[in-house]
Amino acid sequence: MKRRQFLAGTTAGLAVGAAGCVDSFTSLDGVSYGREPELVADRPAAIYYPTHTEEMAMGGMAQTDDGLAVSLAYTFPHRFWRVFKREGRYEAEQFSVDGDDAIHIMANIWDAETGVVLPVSSVDIAARGGNNVDERETVYPMLSQRMGFHYGDNYHLDGDDTYTVNVTVGATTATRFGGFEGRFDKPQTVTINLDYSEAARNELAYETYEDRQGDPGALSPMRMEMNGMAMPTGSVRDLGGTQLGTGRADDIRYAAAVLTDDRFGDAPYLAVTAATRYNELVVPSMGLAGTLTDSNGETVVESTSLEPSLDPELGFHYGAVVPGATGEETATIDVTTPPQVARHEGYETAFFETPTVELD
Description:
Blueprint: E1 6-7, E2 52-54, E3 57-63, E4 68-75, E5 80-86, E6 89-95, E7 103-111, E8 123-129, E9 133-144, E10 148-155, E11 161-169, E12 175-176, E13 188-196, H1 198-202, E14 206-208, E15 224-226, E16 229-231, E17 242-249, E18 252-259, E19 269-276, E20 287-293, E21 299-311, E22 315-321, E23 330-337, E24 342-343, E25 356-358
């Protein structure tokens, strides 16, 4: 496929919905931007209501030998944002729709038994069919208000057909516990037949939000189901253990707990979740460090890196072994790197601070 053209600026992409039909439009420079209305002029540096949503067409589902469920869906191609570091600061850059983009393809990856999403892998999508289409692309990890965490990109298809789509889920980079130990450690590929027609795509419903676009807040996640199976949106889970409190900064809610379950080893384990302020969706691809102090202000655990981790009960979280911790401490979380995940509209201006958050 082509490499993406992108536009400088800080902003993000889409969701899903219903109502109406809006024609595609083309800018003065000849670049098509699908059915999207103009962005809100003064977007807050926070989570906000997007301009619109578009319905999704469900494309198919398969399961890997390792028990991962993989689903495909698509909608109109649309703008989205990736995070880059420029001159010492992080910012979002808008990716435009290329002239040969036919769809925005979305892959959901989760453990079929527990419903835990995997925001710590690479995903390649290869499609064959239509008018000699034979494309392979590594798609981006993304956050959407309606879908939560998923993998996606604008994609080239040419001609109505049932496309053969191979989805390769790479080995996870996360630390794994319990029933996840020894799993997800090698690439696995599934094949899904994706029925596509331009006419069906053009009939996908579309809804705008003129009355609240740009306001602080977020749309509710949609219920997604395929082949009778509900697809998770990646909400954070209760940590259990001894709770250390919660805190919020830059529209991310942090929670922490100390656990002593055998699956975490002989020493206590510090688990931290990072979730969107609204709807509590997991926020991956961050750099976090944790410090624990006792009631006298003495440091029990020096600032220690919290590693991306997967657990059947806790789900995706950030964690570290913390010898000497009792669960009576005060936890402080340092954001060392803001989320590097790509964003749909409504998230692209948020999550760029690197605060220190004391939990209570």
